[in-house]
């Protein structure tokens, strides 16, 4: 393919990048087609290049007005060779200013995916552009009902939107989305992951209050707390400039509150569907993620919602054995809150590795769980204490030999004799 046109149109390209409308106004006057013609190596139009700078706003406004004046509005959203149109580009870089210009002309473009299947909403969440995401969500709501089967909140599109919003840390936005589109919590993204699984994999979202038992309900913020946080938001924004460290504490607490509220809301929405297979799948997968990553508050909420979820084995391991393997003390305490649970799970055997709880405790902790700055002696002491704790509830027969392999099996795991 010949790219000489790219060189020939460099003045337009540079003008788009530098917000220099005056230098190209006459060029477009003489040859209007250049306004909507792909002129870059990547097949971008002048509009897309200007939008992509997030600073050539004057250029964008004049160009859009000129395109409309020449009755070429149908070419405003010409896509690049990569399959993105100007609104996709604005969403990717957080260019809300130019997104407004484009959406005012064609609001329906909010719902149009790029060649990879990503809508502007998803792109804004993926690239951490909260302001743009909020704007697009608001404008999409103003469009009214979507066509059946094409909703941005169902299927993979819905799964992508909610999981990426949580990954971005926009928990307040996620809460708003779920409050208006409750069923989005059951949707899987293109990686087959649900919103609750994402929460389970992110212990950093629950940084404040450790949980040992369900009786510690004081950790849950009530309605008064929610109102307090909302009403004092302006005060804390001012305090950010006067005492940044105090504002940081507030932000951490607010994120913790939002994470707990989001987790509880999702679990409640799932159990209210009264569908066991759905509950087992979503709460089980999320609990498995939480066990592996050490997110006890998600586990606590899942177990509170559906206690039998402690028997979930859908990820190829039993939750209690994985908690022991990963040295997740808080997770371990939650799973073994009930004496009967501890007794029932004490003699489970990993089918694949033919190992029981004591085998798992006897192995060296995974590298990411070894606290290297404590020294070898303290680490060894910690490992020994962990082993003794597990040994205290394992049947004597299982303590005699690390090579013992009972024969009975059930659900992929061996039971004690």
UniProtKB/TrEMBL annotation:
Residues 398-417 are annotated as: Disordered. One of its GO terms (cellular component) is membrane. Pfam families: Ank_2. SMART domains: ANK (SM00248). Keywords: ANK repeat. InterPro entries: Ankyrin_rpt (IPR002110), Ankyrin_rpt-contain_sf (IPR036770). ANK repeats lie at residues 116-148. The keyword ATP-binding does not apply. This is Uncharacterized protein.
